Each structure stands twice: as structure tokens, then as C-alpha cells.
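Progress against Task 2.4 (sequence-to-structure conversion) is shown through the following example record, which the project officer requested during the mid-term review.
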Amino acid sequence: MLNSILTGYALVFFSSQPMVGALFLVATFIIPAQGLAGLASLLISNLWAYCLGCSREEIKGGYFAYNGLLTGLALGLTYEVNGPFLLMLFIAGLLGVLIASSLQALFRQYLFIPVLSTPFVLTTWLVLAAAQHFHGLIYTLEPYEVTILPGAFPQWLDFFFRSAGATFFQLTAVAGLLVSIGLLLYSRFALILAVAGLISGSVVYSLLRGDPADLQRNLIGFNFILTAIAVGGVWTVPGIDTLALALAGGALCAIVAAASAALLSSLHLPSLAFPFIATTCIMIYALKHRGPASRFQTLAFPEKTPETNIKRQRNARTRFLRPQVPGFVLPVSGEWTVTQGREGEHTHKHGWTYAWDFEIQDEWGRSFREDGLSAEDFYSFNMPVYAPADGKVVTAVNHIDDNPVGQVNTVDNWGNLVIVWHYGNIYTTYCHLRRGTASVSEGELIRQGQVIGKVGNSGRSAVPHLHFHVQNNHEIGAASVEAEILHYVSSVGSRGFYHTHGIPEQGEHVRSLAAEERVFHAAGLPLGRRWRYAVSPEGRNREEIWETEIDFAGNRFLVCKARRSRIRYMANRYVLLLLDYEGPRDAGLYWLFLGLSRLPMTSEKVAWKDELDGGLMLPPLKRILSDLLEPFHSFVRVETESRFNGTGSNFVVSTDLAQKGFLAGKKFRNVRITSIFDLHRGLVSLTSEIDNEPVFSLAQIPAPEAAEEKRPLEPLPAANG
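C-alpha cells generated for the chain above:
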């Protein structure tokens, strides 16, 4: 209940942090009667939402609370608190919840943009319009006359504080100071955006000679602030470009504010937050529907802070496959050599840049046995080609003769081939197949791993090989598009190097990861599981309980409630990926995230690398500085290199990590984390060392054997890249 209330206050500035909400709550009570009106309206809105059976998640998340809060604060600024006022507040709570529920459904289904505080504005307008016919509501100007600590701040700072406080309809600098502190706790970049938006909007309003009283009364400036934060850091990925977008948003908001004041004056209604809502919705809607773009990337679901937005985006860019780039596993089995890669010197040019040619080579680098004069001498010839994903065959050519070695057929350039449609406009193409071996027909639905043909030497092919690329239509000879290979191992000496995704280069030896179900069941973190660990951070002993959970959006979490820590993760048949970590640095999940951020589901002796958010290992002051600079450039990172070794029923993962970058300290330059898994019990121990000195350890406390026997195995999920 308390968290729902505090979240309602925090959401006014897009935060969900209770501490931020507590500061905002205190700020609203600078004028006690108005603060009580806001709190009462918030509670009434939540009560109506419960009675109407609205989503419990949205109630707990503060959606109804913050709209009700703003309605109460606005009405508390306008009218004296008396019996008719309380009756109107109670009815307005019902009206606000109904409007909020309706708009939420409408915006989610058709517009795909945030509702923001639109329910508050519509509800308050209706109440103010109705009040013109109800004489029981007594208009008051008392809040305008409240002055606390006059002259305590320079004029420019007083203007900012009053504008920030006006977001909660508190027209005092002291309230604005509390709001600014809360904003600073929420996000340093949001505070920068707030200042930029207020300056931009105020300068434009003044240059166009708007009424100075509008700015001086501080009932317009908060719109500039909210618009800048929303478009510059909440609904877009923050950066230098979005700082410019925030400045533009503040300027546009000044125009909308003047227009709305003129249009609403005849109705005797204030603009309230309408300039912010209109400007933000127009900008976000336009950005979302402009097509693919590299700048001003919008977000469907904003994170907790602008800094988290940029970290998640940078994390996704450095660690994972880009959403717009298709990825497929290798269409062959065993080890193959890339004899021509992207922008290859022979035929992978111009429209066919993004393609691979695969051949089998022996340890001496030869692709054939005997003298190599016939196609049958080549190791690749007649080897099966597999579908790398489910799909539908749209084209199959099977009648073209294979060429004698050294000759090419330029009439039927692509030779025998199969083209498969997978989703949207994504098709995969397999060329130069052996005549008569295409084992699928047009219109046939196929499954991942199904044989679709065999390697041949047809078309423009001098030696047997497989040509593979991705294209955007079903036409033979269509241009290739950028794509990546998923879950493959490249050979480096005696040890393989695992890639979650990547672009194999010419000369590279590659094979698909040999995923094993038993490793997945040991390390895949199935839902509904619970583990107990004896934990020793720097010699202190305690117990931690870890559990797996899933939220309404399908995100999976490994959670330790006692330590208020959690890891968001995903797992499929090929890999466990730990996506991000929240919590203290002495929790077991913290060291698990650093040591096992990426784990292939195999018992092969493979190695792999990763790059994590460097702020995880920074002391508090450096972390604040890193957060402040994050939207502009990352000045610290954590580089990891892991090795996998299997030993009977156990397997061991050793991870070396180091902090790199301008803000990196010397303490974390030589860190090793060793994790040991049991194929039946999962993670059984983890130890961390810095410069060979132990700093952390944990050991699993075994569950009763009977409980283990009753535990069902979670089905092996499909890989989605």
C-alpha cells in the first residue's frame, strides 16, 4: 500500500523509486491543505480502481494513483477545502479512473504511445467546467500568496525551483528544491534535461514576446521540464542527440502552451499539463512511425531511469544480436571453412556482399582427397544441408547438372538451390546444390534441422561448396542482406571459441555448438526452482535463498529477496544469458553475474568473451560520475574471458575479468571467478579472487533428496537467437 502511494508521487517524474516519491510527497505538504487534497485524491483513485476490478499491476504500479494525485493537487490549488469540495473530489476520483482505464486501452491498442497524465487533465477540466455551475465550490487565491524563505535563492535558481515545484502545483521555491533533489536522486541526466528544457522553452516564449506573467507565475515552465525529460531520456535512448531533441521539445512546448492558453481562455480553463502531453505525444508518435532510423531511437517500454535506458541499449549493442539483423545457425554440421566471406574477392560484391561460401578442409588446408579432379574427391560434395530455422520452401531448383571441377555455368548462375521463407521479409538461400538432391518442394513447411539438399557443384561454381545468404524476397538472385550466424564455435588451436552470434570471416574454421540437454537442465535456471547457499563475502557468513520468477511481460529473473538483488536472464537450448543485475555488490548474485554472464549449453572445452557494464565495479562517487557521463560516452567497461571444462558429472567455468577505461580503478584489474556445476544440482559453488586473494565464496546447501526426486524437468525451449 505504502509503495503504491509513493510510486504514485514518483511517477509524476517517470520514476518508480519510493525514496523519490517520499521527497515529492513532502514537497506537496509545503501547503498542508493542498497536500492533503492531493493525498486524499490519490487514495480515492486507488479505492475506485480496486472496486472496479482494474489491473492490480497498474494499481500497484501507481498509474491510477499519480493521475488522482495531480487532480487533487490542482483542485486543492483552486478551491477551498470544504464539504462540497470533498464530495467533488470523491466523484472526480471515479471519473479519473474510468478515463484512465479507457485511455490506457485506446493508446495501447491503436496509438502505441504513452498516456502520460492525460486522464488528470481531462478529469480536472471537466471538474473545473462543472464547478462554474456549482456554487458550493469556493475559488481561492491563497496558495499564490504563500511565501517561504523569500530571496533565499538567486533569481535564476528561484525560477527553476518554482517551475519544478509547479509540477505538483506547489508555487514555492522550497517545494521546488525538494522536487529537484528527488529528480537528482532519480536521474542526473533527467536533471540536465529539465534545465535544458526550461531554458529552451522560456527563451522561445520570451523571444516571441509571450506574456511575462505566464512564466513568472510558473504555471507554464513545468511543461517545458516534463517535455524535455520525456522526449530526451524516458521514451528515447539518451545521448547528445536526444539532448538536442529535448531542447527542441522545450521550444515546441512553448508554442503549444501559448496556443492552448488562447484556445482554452474562452472556456475559462487552464492549460494544466496539456502542452507537455500534446508536445510529447506528437513527437514520440512521429519518431515511432518514421521507419528505420539510427537517431532518436524510441523505446516501447522505458527502463527505470534514463541512465538505465542507455546502459541497456549499449549492453544490447555490445553483447547481443541487433533486433533488426536476422540470425541463423549454420546450415551444415561438422567443421567447415569459410572460403569466401562478406565482401569476398571473387563474387561477394555489390548486391551480394553479405554471403558465405563453406567448404570442408583437412588438417593441411586441402578441400579434396586424391588429386581433386572430380567432384567426388571433394570432402564437401554430397554433404547434407540443413534448414537453420523453421520455414516454408518458396523456391526449389533441382535439375541443373553439376560442373566438372574447374568449370562454371554462367547461364544458370546460382545452380540448384532452395529458398526458404522464415518470417516477415526474411528468406534464406542455399545455392550450388547437387543435381536431384533437393529433398523439399515448393510450398512445403520445414523444421529446423531438416535436410533440404546436398552440397554440389552446379551453377557458377568451380569446386563443390555451399553458398548461403539471407535476402528480403523470394526471387532467385535477389540481393543479400546483412545477417549473422548464431551459436557457432570457431577453432583457435586446440580450444574452440564460442560465439553467441557473429560474422565468420574468410579462412575461419567454424562448426555449430554441440548443445547438450543435460547441461541445460543443470544451468538453464528453470522456473519454479529454489536454491539455498552458504555465502561468505570477505569472511562474513550468511545464508541466501535464490528463486526464479517471471513477470507479466515474460521477463525471467533469478531473485534473492533477502539481499534485494536480482538478475534478468534468458535461456534456450544453446546458451544462458544473464542480461543485467540489480542489487548490492556483496550479494551472491552480483558475483554470479560477473562470472557467468554468458554460458554455452555444452560440455565442449570452449572459451568465450563478454563485455559488461563497467559501473558495476565502481565505488559510489565514480558510479555517479559514470551515470552522468553515460549518455555521452562510456568511460568504463568490464571485459571477461571464460573457459569451460567438463569433469564427469561436474563442469567448471573459470572467468578472468578486468575493469578497463578512463574511470577504471586498479583494484579490479586481476579478478578470477570460478563456478562449479553439478549436472543434477546446478551451481554448487562459486569463488572469487582478486590478485589471488579470496574475496567471496558460496556453496550450495543441498535440498532434501526427496524434494529433488519430485522436481520435474522444464521442457527444453527453442532458441530464438
